[in-house]
Design goal:
This protein has about 325 residues and is an alpha/beta fold. The chain is built from eleven helices and eleven strands. Helix content is about 45%, strand content about 20%. The strands form three sheets. Strands 3, 4, 5, 6, 9, 10 and 11 form a seven-stranded mixed sheet that branches. A hairpin with a 6-residue loop joins strand 1 and strand 2.
Length: about 325
């Protein structure tokens, strides 16, 4: 793939000449001139510069499809070459958008680095576009592996890393908390999954006076919470552009409202002072699995296979580690 073609794809990815120029470390006039020369040689315009954001012309759409096919071919070639190489050199690209991924990826990379310090690992935490954007990159071959929850089995294969239990936490002095006290379990019972079955709450009308704090409506957790609570899903505070669930947790500790979180967050959060109620809902939507995803039918390189094995080891350790 020629350099100018990579420039064109970056412009389309960013939908902006100026943003692409920043990432490519060239000036915008230079980038515009380079693309203009390419368009002249092709005999058509690739971009419709009169729209906001930038859009493709009809010919440009065909050209972009061609570039994406080239990228997939290059990625397949790279994977096959890496598979032939030794385990001490090469590259690996990993993505992760979920809260657990933000904690797990550094742990996995730490273990991996000890045995393979010469391998260059690129990590995409996926702040822009969330998991959908990461899966699109995985499909195109610009990422080798992605940590995530829900995925399309027709396009991807998931290697299960660990099971998460989702629960509600509320400060005991928060409005509506009194009605939930009889169903509260301890932090240790949550982490060790030793709470009595009768403590699982299925009467969600007890939340009718409880207000919640959540992030954007389209997040995995927000949608699960809505399915569980139904009409009792009363949201008082919405924290937009949120990527770290610790922020919601801090709002809850301040008595603003209840939160719906993973037991993985509880494991990584500071110990409470006996002032929090942990409520475990009885619902299929309160369980989820974190997967290490790869493109369906893709052949992983030995380097990627080793990363997968290290991820499984780390998750076994994390699963039973009390903090």
């Amino acid at each position: 793939m020629e350099l100018v073609e990579r420039y064109v794809y970056k412009i389309w990815e960013k939908q902006s000449f100026s943003e692409a120029a920043k990432e490519l470390y060239i000036t915008q006039p230079s980038l515009s001139a380079t693309v203009a020369r390419l368009e002249k040689s092709l005999g058509f315009r690739i971009f419709n510069r009169s729209t906001i954001p930038l859009s493709l012309t009809a010919q440009g759409r065909i050209y972009m499809d061609f570039l994406e096919e080239m990228m997939v071919s290059e990625s397949n070639m790279r994977q096959r070459i890496l598979a032939m190489g030794d385990m001490q050199h090469g590259t690996l690209s990993v993505g992760g958008q979920a809260y657990a991924a933000l904690h797990l990826i550094p742990e996995i990379c730490g273990r991996f680095y000890k045995e393979h310090p010469e391998v260059c690992v690129t990590v995409d935490i996926g702040h822009t576009g969330g998991l959908d954007n990461l899966l699109e990159k995985l499909k195109k071959g610009t990422l080798d592996l992605v940590l995530g929850y829900d995925y399309d089995p027709d396009e991807f294969e998931g290697i299960p890393l660990h099971e998460e239990r989702l629960l509600f936490i509320i400060h005991k002095d928060t409005k509506g908390a009194t009605a939930l006290q009889n169903y509260a379990v301890s932090r240790e019972q949550v982490l060790n999954k030793t709470y009595p079955p009768e403590k699982e709450l299925d009467d969600f009308s007890l939340f009718q006076n409880v207000q919640f704090i959540r992030n954007r409506e389209t997040s995995n957790m927000a949608m699960r919470m809505s399915k569980i609570l139904g009409e009792y899903n009363l949201v008082s505070h919405v924290v937009i552009n949120l990527r770290q669930f610790e922020i919601l947790y801090n709002f809850m500790r301040a008595g603003v409202g209840a939160v719906f979180v993973s037991d993985y967050l509880v494991r990584n959060a500071p110990e409470d002072a006996g002032d929090l109620l942990y409520i475990v809902p009885k619902s299929p939507h309160a369980h989820r699995t974190l997967y290490l995803l790869k493109k369906k039918d893709a052949v992983l390189s030995p380097i990627a296979e080793k990363f997968v094995s290290e991820a499984l080891i780390v998750c076994q350790e994390e699963k039973f580690r009390e903090k």
